[in-house]
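Bug #77: duplicate submission created two jobs. Keeping one. Sequence:
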Amino acid sequence: MNVQSDLSMKTDEVLRVELEVFRRQHRDLDQAISALEERGTGDQLTIRRLKKQKLLLKDKISLIEDRLTPDIIA
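Kept job's structure:
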């Protein structure tokens, strides 16, 4: 099942909860990446993987925000 069809089957309340969880995970990943880069303790492969996860979360967040925001035709 793809993400779009999965979103269409969920209620707005479930999507709002998921949105908050994804935002928190995104923020946590950002902090982890920053800490690894500052300390120099993370290898580049690990940092790239974390950045990729962060991008995937950003995409999910955008999809949910688009679903929750009504289209306004001016």
